[in-house]
Write a structure and sequence with these properties.
homotetramer, 205 residues, alpha+beta, L-fuculose-1-phosphate Aldolase, 8-stranded mixed β-sheet, 5 helices, metal-binding (chains A, B, C, D), methylthioribulose 1-phosphate dehydratase activity (chains A, B, C, D), zinc ion binding (chains A, B, C, D), aldehyde-lyase activity (chains A, B, C, D)
Chain lengths: 205, 205, 205, 205
Amino acid sequence: MTPIPAAIAEALIAAGHRLDARGWVPATAGNFSMRLGPDRIAVTRSGYHKGFLKPESLMVVDLAGQPENPALRPSAETGLHCGVYRRFPGTGAVLHGHSIANTVLSRAAGPSLTLAGYELLKAFPGLPTHDASAEIPVVDNDQDIARMQAGLEARWDGMGASPPPGYLIRGHGSYIWAADMPGALARFEALEFMLECELATRRSA
Amino acid sequence: MTPIPAAIAEALIAAGHRLDARGWVPATAGNFSMRLGPDRIAVTRSGYHKGFLKPESLMVVDLAGQPENPALRPSAETGLHCGVYRRFPGTGAVLHGHSIANTVLSRAAGPSLTLAGYELLKAFPGLPTHDASAEIPVVDNDQDIARMQAGLEARWDGMGASPPPGYLIRGHGSYIWAADMPGALARFEALEFMLECELATRRSA
Amino acid sequence: MTPIPAAIAEALIAAGHRLDARGWVPATAGNFSMRLGPDRIAVTRSGYHKGFLKPESLMVVDLAGQPENPALRPSAETGLHCGVYRRFPGTGAVLHGHSIANTVLSRAAGPSLTLAGYELLKAFPGLPTHDASAEIPVVDNDQDIARMQAGLEARWDGMGASPPPGYLIRGHGSYIWAADMPGALARFEALEFMLECELATRRSA
Amino acid sequence: MTPIPAAIAEALIAAGHRLDARGWVPATAGNFSMRLGPDRIAVTRSGYHKGFLKPESLMVVDLAGQPENPALRPSAETGLHCGVYRRFPGTGAVLHGHSIANTVLSRAAGPSLTLAGYELLKAFPGLPTHDASAEIPVVDNDQDIARMQAGLEARWDGMGASPPPGYLIRGHGSYIWAADMPGALARFEALEFMLECELATRRSA
C-alpha cells in the first residue's frame, strides 16, 4: 500500500481549512487531491466536510480511480481528478470547490466564461500580462462522471495546446490544478476573485 | 433529571460557534437542539447569544416542550423543535438560524421557495442527483408557536411521504434537521448556499 | 481618579474585537463606552483602531464629556455618548460603528428609516413581537458635536416616551445602547442585520 | 547589507495577515513595503502569498528599486513603491492590494473616482471634516512599470500641492501610503470601505 506522506496530508488538510474559511466547501461539497507518484494520487474520501479533514479522511487511488484499499470509498468525482492528472502530466494538485460566484455564473453561462483585462489573469500559465483573456470551459453537470470526463476531453481537444488549468461545472463548482498545492490554491483564489468581480459587475451594471 | 452528556453539549456549543462565524445567529437569535432519548431533547435556553454558549446555556425538555427543571425557561420556539422530533422520529438534531438570504427571500416569497438544478440538492434526502428540485415551505411568522406548528403539520400533510428536512419562517429564519448534528450542519450550509445563490441571481438578473 | 475596573476594560476590548471581525470599525472609526457610575463613563480615546484596543486606549470622562485626566484626549464624538447617558439614565453601554449597510442606507434616507416585519425587531425594547415597526432616526452628519446632539434631543422630544435605542448619522455610522454591553452588542447586531436585509432587498427588487 | 529590523518584518507580516483575512491579497497578489532609511526600503519578494509572509519573504532595495542582494528578485511592482517614497518623502509604509470593489470600480471608471460626503474621508490628510471630497486617480494598467510610474508623476503634477495618498490601477488594485504602517492600514481600510459603499450604492440604485 502506498503511504500518504505527512506533508501531503497536511497540505490537503490545510487547503480544506482555507477554502472552508471562504465558504467554498459548504456541506460535504468539494474534494482535493495531490499526486503521490506516476500512477497514484491521494484524494479525499466521500462524505466528509472538507473544512474538518483528518489524515483518515484521505485515501489512495490509481489514475483510473481504483482504490488501493477496496474497503474505502473515494469521492464520486474522483474520476474528474484522475482525468486531469492523466491529461496534464505536470499536475501535482487538484482542487474542487463550490462558491456563490462560480455557481451563479455557471448556471447563467453558455459553453464558456471569458475573463479579460484582469491583472490576476497572470496567475494562469501562458498569460504574462493582464492584457489578455482566458476562456474558461463551462460543462453541464452530470452524475455520470465518465461521461462528463469524456465531454471535457473533447472540449480540451478543441482548445489547442494549452487549455486553461481549470473549468466550471454548471450549477456545481470549479476544478483547478497546478504543479503543486500552493500553485493550485493561488489559481483557485485568482479564478474566484475574477468570478466575484464579474458577478459584482453584472449587479451594478 | 436527565443529564446532558458532554459530547452533546460540545456539539451544540460548536454548532453555535460555526453559525456565528457566518453571521447566522445575530443578537440572541437562533436556537439548537439534540435528541437525548425517545422523549427528551437538549435545547438552548432563552436569551443567550448562540455564538457564546456554555453548558449552562442548555436545558432538557420533553417532546411536549415541558422543562424537566421548571426553574429554567426554554427558548420560545422550543415548540417548533419538539414538533420536528415528534413528526420525524429519525431526527437527532435541529438547527434554527437567521441569515440575510433566508430573511430577504422568505419576505418576498409566496408559500414556498423552489430550488432546482443545484449540485448541493444532493445534501437533502431522496435527491440522489442535481437534476431535481426541492420545494421548501415558507410559513408566516407568528408569536403563537402552537398555531405556527399546527400550520406546519397541515403543510407537511399535503407534501407526501417525505417533506424536505427544513422550512423557512417569513422574515424570521430557517429550521433544518437531520439524524445527527454533522448532518444538520451540512444541510444548513447547503440550504443557505443555495439561498445565497438565488439572491445573487436575482440581483444580477 | 476613577479607576476603570478590569471587567469593564475587558468588555470594551472584546466589543472591539467582535465589531472589527465584521468590518464595522474600519480605520480608526467607531467608539465605545460603558458607565462607571452616576456621572462617570469609560470611553475609547481618540485615534486608536478599535479592533486592537488595550486598557491604555481607554479613559474616564464625566457626563459633560470632561476628561478626569486633562492630558488625555477623548474621541471627538464623546459628546454623543454623554448625550445618551444623560437622556436615558438606564443606559450602561453605548456602541458606535460604521458599516457598509448603515452608511449606504443613511446616505440615501430621509429623516428616518423604518424597519418592519422582522423577527429581530424583538431585540429592541417595547416590541414584543415581529408584527411591529421601528422608526430609526437618521440625522445629518456634523463636525459640531454639540449641535448634532441638540438636534438629536429635538428629535427625541418629538418621538414620545420611548425613542428607539439607536440612531444613524448620515454617511457616518450608527449609535446603539442598552443597559449593559451584551445588550448593546445584541442590538447592534440586530440593527445591522435588518439594515443588511434592507440593502439586499433594494438590490434584488 | 542593511538588516531588516524584527519590528519592521513583524509589521509587514501582520499587514499581510490582516489584508488576507479580508480577501484583499488573493493568489500571490499585493505587495507591501516600509522605509528603512533615506534610500532603503524593505519590500516583499516576488511570488509569495502575502497572507503567509515570513522574514525570508522580504528583501531590501534602494529607492531606484535596485536589490542590495542581487540574488533576490523583488516584486515586479517595486518601482511603484519606490516612486511613492521618492515623491512623498514623509512616507514610511506603502500597501498594495486587490479587492472586488477596487477592481470592479476601477474597470468602470474614467481617469478618477470621486468620494464625497463620507465620514471616513477624515482618514485622509487635509480633510478635517466629512464635508469634503477626494479625487482618487485611476491609471491604466501597464506591465511597463516605469511607464506607469511616469504617468503617475504627470497626474500628481496636475493635482496641486497635496495629491491624495493613494491611487487605483484599472482592473488591478490600489496603492495607499502613510507615515507609518498603522496609518497606511487605516487609510487602506478607509478607502476600501468607501469603495464598497460606492459599489453597493450602484447596485441598489
